[in-house]
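Handout, page 2. Input:
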Amino acid sequence: MTATTTPHQLADLAVANPGALIQSVDWVAIAPPLIAAVAALGILVADLLLPARRKPLLGWAAVAALALALLALIPLRHGDRATFCLKTVAATTDNGGCSYVADHFTLVFQLIALGGALLTALLSVHTVDEQRMPAGEYWFLLLGSATGAALLPASRDLATLIIALEVVSLPAFALVGLRRDRLGGEAALKFFLSSVTATAVMLLGVSFVYAAGGSLHLAALADGLDHAPAQLRHLAQAGAALTLVGFAFKVAAVPFHFWLPDTYTGAPVPVAAYLSVVSKAAGLAGIALVTTLAFRPYAHTWGLLLAILAAATMTVGNVAALRQRPDTPRSAVRLLAWSSIAQAGYLLVPLAAAGYGHDGNPLGATAAYALIYAVVNLGAFAVVAAVGRTAAENRLDDYRALFSRRPASALALGFALLCLAGLPPGVVGVFAKVVVFRAAVDAGLGWLAVVMAANVVVALYYYLVWTAKLFTPQATPQPQAQAQAQPEPQPQAHRMPAPLSAAVALTAVGAVVLSLAPQLVLQVVSTTLF
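Output:
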């Protein structure tokens, strides 16, 4: 039995030896996404039975379910479990015939997905109530999308990968438009149409790759592509490029980024935070899996392609962020949207290095940067959500003198921005940039390292301008103008809800701990993920 066993051979094997294709399910391995999925269905049913005054309990049930899913990762910390395997294939290919593998790569990205969803849930508890969104539908969609995000990094065949990617995406469309206003509807429609187009292109690519390689399992597919007939080589290469399109869309890599700024602006702030971290991590995991496992024979091709995408993505994101005007509505969210695009470029650099035979651990560098980015970016969005409660337009100018009004929030946002910029005291941000930069240099991608260094310098401007606003005092009016002007009613200070305060505190503490003990992230970089 070889790694390139065809469906007809599997059917013959099932007739001759039915036990070869029958196995027990490893419930411990699949527990993290399973808990989120069961909780999603339970909350949807409970929404039908609970009276209106009890609906806030659904949010806390979602928080508890995501916390339980995170705890389910602890028994998997050794990274040695697999299930849904073709027994004879898995025995000869080191889990190559398994559809679900809980290795170290899976655990890191499941931690990002479920942890990001948990922080999003804390951000959303008050938002669902204040913006009068349907509670049952919101929590069902959030948990459903988180299920797909946790399933995707564990997937080891193309069919499961595509299904997981769509499970991430379909609920996200509805989450964006759940507020039911003009901006939300427009953002959801643009997100939906763009995603459907990218998925159609990706499915076409998968069909080409399957025709050439003869398998859906990623490890077996690599062997099949390596021995594909010469007349199918060009078809397989085109299929590999088209397959990457769907995942590049989720990461918002240029030129598949155009949906992102308007989507973030029209979505509720917690949903924008979720898309910027969890959805992006799912797409990044998909790119890492299909390139390093399935498309190994074409490493130099996709390595160059990812390097070009990385350079274009970080450049376009940073240049567009520079153009954001501080007095336009929702400019704070839009700036974070363009910053998210630029950060996606940095995340793609180690994956490009993997295509050039980098001897280190480029996947570890990507996972470490993604983990750091998730913590600090969610921290920035948490403060933006808090400010948005009293400043509905959420402009950058609304953050002027935030330190005098909310010192803790200003310090948390300032530290998150410095981490994103890669400046002290945000040591963890500096460390993340160095890890990615080193991956490019070690792989011989000197030109990409230069582009990255230039972009880091460009990004310093808008991060520092926003940070400076937090500590800049409000402009005092001239005495004559003050005497003539009618006194304007000052907005009442709203006490920050406890779940929102918890989200700000957790992300701030996480960023500080990682800055004081970067060896926690070093363990990810030094661990062989596959």
